[in-house]
Amino acid sequence: MTTDRDPTDRDPTDSSRTADPAFAVTMPMTIQHATELRDRLADAIEAGARRFDLSAVEEFDSAGVQLLLAARRSLAARQAEIELAHVPMVVRDLLDRYGLQFGLAHTQEST
Fold first, then answer.
1. Which band of pLDDT confidence, cut at 50, 70 and 90, is reported for residue 103?
2. Right CATH for 22-107 from 3.30.750.24, 3.40.190.10, 3.40.50.450, 3.30.1120.10
3. What is the pTM (predicted TM-score) of this model?
């Protein structure tokens, strides 16, 4: 017997699927990469990303700050909040310098 179950229905007890996978930022968040990274972040947000894994970010400058602020604005327009995971010290330091440590939701900070 077959059922007419909608394939998009999810079993809430199914832990093999995550509701909001993180988008991994794998390049420096600097002026040299700003255009490419802007496009990647926009595509990720369009695809539903809300959480951004920054663990691979080793370089971060004011362009990176601007990219995160733009991502936050884009998500706010969708009634969503940005979440940063595995935030390295280089990112935290510059965000702190700009007074943005509470403007972006830091989670699972790394050293």
1. low
2. 3.30.750.24
3. 0.76
